[in-house]
Amino acid sequence: MGEIGHKFARLESLRAAGFPVPDFFCLPASEFDRALGDPRPPSAPVADWCASAASELAKAVPDGYLAAALLAAFDERIGAAGTAAVRACVVPGGGGGGEDSGDDPFAGMSDSFLYVRREGLLEAVARCWASAFKPEAVRYRLLKGVDPAGARVAVGVQRMVPGTRSFVAFTRDPRDGTRHHVIAAAHGIGEGVVQERADVDHFFVDPAGRVAAELVDKRRMVGPPAGGEAGPRAADVPGALREPPVLTDAEARRVADLAARVEEHFGRPQDIEGAITPDGAVHLVQARPLAPAVRDAGPRVHFGSHNITESFPGVSGALTYSQARMFYELAFTDLYRRMGVPARRLRANAHRLPRMVGHLDGRVHYRLDDWQELHGQLPVFDLVRDGWEEAMGIAGGPRASRRGPRSRVAAALPAVAWHAAGHRRATAEFLRWWDGLMAEVHDPAARPLAGRSPEELIALYRRMWAEVSVRWGVTLANGLYGLLAMRAGTALLRRWAGAGPELLVGLLCGGRENRSLAAARAAIALAERAAAIPDLKAALLAEPGDGTEEEHLAAVWDGIAAGRYGSPIAASARAYLRRYGDRAMHDLKLGEPTPRQRPWMVAGTIAPFVRRGATVAGSRTDEARAAADARRRLRAACPNPARRAVLHGLLSLLRWFVRTREDTRFCRTQLFGLSREVLWRLGADLAATGALDDPADVLDLTAEEVIGAFDGTLPGADLRGLARVRRAERARHRDVPPPPALFSVPAGRPVAAVLPHARPAGEPARADGDVLHGLGSSGGTVRGRAKVVLDPGIPPAGCAGRILLARETDPGWLSLMIAASGLVVERGTLLSHTAVTGRLLGVPTAVAVGGAVDRIPDGAWIELDGRAGTVRVLDRRAPH
């Protein structure tokens, strides 16, 4: 090691182990010592001596016996007509270290010369020696506290392979140390990648072998010398190679596998360089230890928002967060109990349940460590772990967790089967209970909530949430069983029909109407009645005039409610409000009003349907057509009737799970809707007594504080001051960028103090030039102008005929979705709200299209393929 250095010792070790290393030979550092001559006198200034030594070494071209030996080795190893890469490597000194060492991978900063011919070999060796004392190397070694005059250089001469593509690969993500292989690849030679002289594609290969890529338009490359030139030259990438990725997915996996084997060989993360020849062979030309990613010492806590932003997007106040936290704690405690988790284990993890969701910079996040520990209590969770981790955005990432032994799953299956056998009955009981409670609360003959005393409201609130704590787990169990059915259905479709998720989307259509779909069709039915009344139709479609959109809709609603357009439409509107008044945009956020509090919002819901001429019959026809088309494609892809019968049985079960999911999601909307009514009413009472400045200040108190103010259990009495402070914080949170979707902070420290330094994690979106890829969720192809929606409070007319692009949606986006001709969101799964709604509306939909909002300008002309899950940008220019 002290004579040839880490760089060449590693190459020799790899070559001896059978890795595809091009042939090479080394000139030991002892020859450098002879060329250098006398060491630096103690009295000589370091910088001056190094500059003089570099100049002299550059002239010390090997001659005599050494020159003859070098040329003979070149002829034998490289070939007299061949070319070589001649590289310097600073060897370890008395205290260790040296270039490409584990402690300082880049300590030498020495030179390399490529495409060196036989006649240029001796001069290249001298120039390598001289690079030991070039100015930047001297400065670097002084910075490291190492005597630059003590540098000794070995020289390696390696055969150049005729590579047409090159790469640098890391066995860990160099940004955060996660177990992703990161590959930078370009056309031409590695000089272009290393020195950023070529346009580079990046590939990200996770531990499961999945490949994501960030692709660029490749115009620049570095290639071999032309004519009588010496050394590499800049060149243009041939036109046919500019758009396609430099590596196929299979090649990216081959490179990642090579890097992984190098890491295993040396026992630590590596950074490798290589070339690919026209025959597809991969050659390994360098390997060095990967500099460790900068990480805080000690354990870390991981947070994520990939999934929860569908329910709680943007900034949420204290009232919303406290209700969400209570919901997760109670509902999942009931799930674990129902799934047979022993009481002692629940007690041991009791501290994790209240912190399943955090409130960071005003935004709701999952605390992923606790979710994994809690879900890990369920042995059957291993069967759906992949789907869950994908939905949470951590598949293959730093928080991807290890599975338990298969025997654990097998042992748990009888108990799971026992619980699953009673699931339909438990679901029916849950829905009967919930419908009974809603009938009690919203019965026209019952006393309205506005007329009840604070004591009665609090008693209703407590009774409802006490029942939630022992009933709501059935809705979460449905999600678990649904994931199992989805996994089985997807696997059988792939095996028997050679089909992917795009066929499954259509096969999920049909069957009995769920409550979310019933809400949409009830709005369509109300719009049909309104459209049949000319004056009302004209009012709904009229421009706001001098007033605001809200004032216009309020006036239209007042006319409907007052019977101006007839008593039948007034009765229908009241019935719709009574049944579906809790469904609105962001309806789980208690700070957002719903039609229950702002009845005129009903007019805003039906106006887009009136404008489109939508009908319930048309909605049902579209759904039936999609289902029939999917069944026809299944018959063609799977001609075996026995297998189709199995698939149809499984799909029928899966449709039931999806319908139940949407039914219980609607119940959740009503749960938060009733909580909103009670807590807003209590807020009004607090403001009336002077405890708050304004009823809206209740949004910045927790549910426990609101009720504690009436119970006498509230520590401190200054609710006005507390609400004022939190309101100001909420305003500040709206003005700062949100944390990354995945990030971690040091454990054991106040999260608020370290959140600004949170470390992002995760994969970049896959994009092929102007094509973005996601998950196809509702078939069909549509072209149109993009409508990027960051604030969903815009009028639905703004989305009319446009393809809606958003980071995520929730059920309250329905009016915007109805108006849009296509849906594209950055997050989601086949069972997410956007995917389900797209299928119900019959519009092309793609979810999990990472980076769509940032990559596609508002107004750009795009093409959405809802079956393939692709979004193609046709023209980035917005219309003038």
UniProtKB/TrEMBL annotation:
Keywords: Pyruvate. One of its GO terms (molecular function) is ATP binding. The keyword Phosphoprotein does not apply. Residues 801-869 form the PEP-utilising enzyme mobile domain. InterPro entries: ATP_grasp_subdomain_1 (IPR013815), PEP-util_enz_mobile_dom (IPR008279), PEP_Utilizing_Enz (IPR051549), Phosphohistidine_dom_sf (IPR036637), PPDK_AMP/ATP-bd (IPR002192). Residues 3-291 form the Pyruvate phosphate dikinase AMP/ATP-binding domain. It comes from the Bacteria. PANTHER family: PHOSPHOENOLPYRUVATE SYNTHASE-RELATED (PTHR43615), PPDK_N DOMAIN-CONTAINING PROTEIN (PTHR43615:SF1). This is Phosphoenolpyruvate synthase. It comes from Actinomadura darangshiensis.
